[in-house]
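Why this split exists: single-chain examples teach little about how molecules sit against one another. For that reason, every record in the complexes split bundles all components of an assembly together and asks for one structure covering all of them. Below is a record exactly as it appears in the raw files.
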Amino acid sequence: MKGDKKYDRAFYIGRFQPYHLGHHNVIRTLIKEVEELIIGVGSAQKSHTITDPFTAGERVMMISKAVSEFNIPFYVIPIEDVEYNSVWVSHVKAMVPPFSVVFSNNPLVERLFYEAGTPVRNLPLFQRKMYSGTEIRRRMIKGDEWESLVPRCVADIIHSIRGVERIRKLAQSDKSEEMQ
Amino acid sequence: MKGDKKYDRAFYIGRFQPYHLGHHNVIRTLIKEVEELIIGVGSAQKSHTITDPFTAGERVMMISKAVSEFNIPFYVIPIEDVEYNSVWVSHVKAMVPPFSVVFSNNPLVERLFYEAGTPVRNLPLFQRKMYSGTEIRRRMIKGDEWESLVPRCVADIIHSIRGVERIRKLAQSDKSEEMQ
Amino acid sequence: MKGDKKYDRAFYIGRFQPYHLGHHNVIRTLIKEVEELIIGVGSAQKSHTITDPFTAGERVMMISKAVSEFNIPFYVIPIEDVEYNSVWVSHVKAMVPPFSVVFSNNPLVERLFYEAGTPVRNLPLFQRKMYSGTEIRRRMIKGDEWESLVPRCVADIIHSIRGVERIRKLAQSDKSEEMQ
Amino acid sequence: MKGDKKYDRAFYIGRFQPYHLGHHNVIRTLIKEVEELIIGVGSAQKSHTITDPFTAGERVMMISKAVSEFNIPFYVIPIEDVEYNSVWVSHVKAMVPPFSVVFSNNPLVERLFYEAGTPVRNLPLFQRKMYSGTEIRRRMIKGDEWESLVPRCVADIIHSIRGVERIRKLAQSDKSEEMQ
Amino acid sequence: MKGDKKYDRAFYIGRFQPYHLGHHNVIRTLIKEVEELIIGVGSAQKSHTITDPFTAGERVMMISKAVSEFNIPFYVIPIEDVEYNSVWVSHVKAMVPPFSVVFSNNPLVERLFYEAGTPVRNLPLFQRKMYSGTEIRRRMIKGDEWESLVPRCVADIIHSIRGVERIRKLAQSDKSEEMQ
Amino acid sequence: MKGDKKYDRAFYIGRFQPYHLGHHNVIRTLIKEVEELIIGVGSAQKSHTITDPFTAGERVMMISKAVSEFNIPFYVIPIEDVEYNSVWVSHVKAMVPPFSVVFSNNPLVERLFYEAGTPVRNLPLFQRKMYSGTEIRRRMIKGDEWESLVPRCVADIIHSIRGVERIRKLAQSDKSEEMQ
């Protein structure tokens, strides 16, 4: 399966709340070195909070539509949290196809794969201040323009699932004293 | 089963740590519109902390005794947290009898039921500053009077289970460095 | 709270798939000795199988409607399985009001409460061959008459939720080779 | 997104232990009616047993390679068991993109989606005796030819991960008395 | 830490329901080759059934008392089931000190460690028909002599916790129709 | 088993991140009163964070090596968190040998055992400011000397597992925006 690129299959993980142009630029760079790319959608069981508004399935669709433009084989796989760091690497390895390298800048992800013997490479970074999930969610809640920070097809999906309405509702200060 | 009231069966959820006159006044109002009331006891698995001192069973007893004065059919059901917002509505629906409306002021609860297609109505509020679980627990810890904020039968139950002694012990600053 | 009956509050657990006249006769006898009755609905998270067709909430409603005729205070509480026998008694005790006796004929339930120091009494039995959940579910699947084995209000609930249609569908031999 | 086909996005679930020509023929038929196909990989957390030898990630790779020949957009998503039928549909919906129809012959899957209001269609069946996971695993254990029952790329993957060696080891009668 | 023995630290796992002379003879042989021994107590969360009557803590005590006669450093560690074979090895590795070899005759244990790259050696077997947990539990239930099949200190512990009374109670045919 | 000491078997729990001279001095005092000591390793499933850097198995090894100098029988048992305070005591009791007293200064631990009817005694404290896991981890991250705060054998183990390298990596400010 390995062609003339450096790695046959690489693993890249994020929360993608939502998938934005920062992620897109990272992947545009990665694909120069990898034959196939596995994209892990972290904290898959989380949704409907102001930091994690979108479901795993919604994020899978955003990523799949956007990455399909790059014309390389790719896999988009939800990864549920396990809250048990020592087994996290084997949990990931069970859920995704075999891979030979991990791309990450997260110290925990780097350390866990390092101790498991999997090579880890750092990611290039693109205008992190601007292309950031935190910034995009802040703009959605405030009612500011955010569409220019994500690929066009991602903006379309967020509109179709009424994602901005969702996050704005969740951001309302709680009118009841205490619950759930 | 539906008589001449607006809703046949309604769902109302809270943590009820403890059940107080604010809750009691809400229910007094709700029962004008509903034939039967389902009361969900949220975070059922939590107890023995300063924000969640009482067990689900203790809370079920407080609520059942207090609500029985209203003379309508009611159900008091513990609801354990699932930490997975997308399945929370179906978890609730599995544990309680069928209902046609939800009463809530909590944005997350409102949004989750809204996306699931269940009608949601907001609750009336009664002197929220005073009738508040936070205020009651604060008074218990400080040794102040709190009994006037809860129905008489609830105060009796809390005394019989030595609830104030429990929360005051839990509020002690930890004498050991670190643990569990 | 204790009046002139033998026990102030008793615990009785079953799966109630569905609640039938055997259970009803047991409770009719128990209430002579207890001031208040706690009914635990076991395997609460199970439903939609041929041995456990009904949800916890459906079972709570069946039991509540039927037991309300006896005119004693009662609690109907779903109990999710924990698959960890050593903690099961404390799980039950967390979810229900305090009780001073358990009524059960199940050796595991008897032993677990015995080791925890809670008194256990055996149940009277009423025509167990006929009044049996297994027999009722068998009749539902075969299309035979089953309504005479349950309280009238329970039959009404099962009809209103289309429970017989559900169990008959689940009993179809699987047309696909293998799944889930 | 909807073009001239009957359904915009359809959901099809199986265990795919392994993906074989029966599944492949089903999908060949489905794609005539659907714009996009979501393939759920059930019991995702299971592997390394004689009935479930392959990991979710191995199955994702088999399916992705085989289905890519059909030239329609598709998603392959691991679905972990939840052991709680009442929440299973919302678990699936959280993990995969939105869909408007389910294709299944499994009575439980059919019933759960039916009660949730999602349309269900039955699958065509192709020589089920021969194209069966059970038969393929039986042949692997016995050392018989099995490659003709799966797409060529699937056989290649199974060989590359030494899948036959794995299932044959697991099928050894246990030499120790009892364990895990 | 490594002295003149073949392995510095070895891992040996069983359910030990109860620990018997077969296990004891295995360990007597193993210690000739290992500096330190880690004994994993599998299915740690199981107890109070006729196949798994004893708690993890009871089994830890049996093993610790018996193995202390061998005068080598050892660790006895409960291992809860994870029902997810792909992460089981990393679960074990998180719970116990580092080891360089596994002793096992269980095909699943052998395969999982083999795929994880840990060397596995087979165990010697000693009169497996007689020294067997199944046989010992059968004798306990029937009221036959079983003490000669376990180390003396293990028989003492089982008597002190009234273990035979427990398993005989659990073996009673259920007097109630169905429960838990 | 009880000799001339005050307690036959005592339970002492901590997180031991890492085991240090404060713990060691506590145990040196305890053993004057107890025949056997059970040491529970709390939050056993946690590792690879800056507050919980070491695995349960690494902590078991540290403790076992250090405590073996005291020449009393002891047990070192990982205790996974259950996030359900009402069942925590029975979880502990399932995992460890029977005990007649608990030594703790933690209000929650004290209260839970008190309500379960187990006697609790407070611990002596030794220079808590200095001998503290927080202080040791702070020194490790800063590159300061920490070895003098732990028993010699514990320092050796931490070096052999490259524990300081691990915690320093985990303490790096995250270079990526957001993840897992």
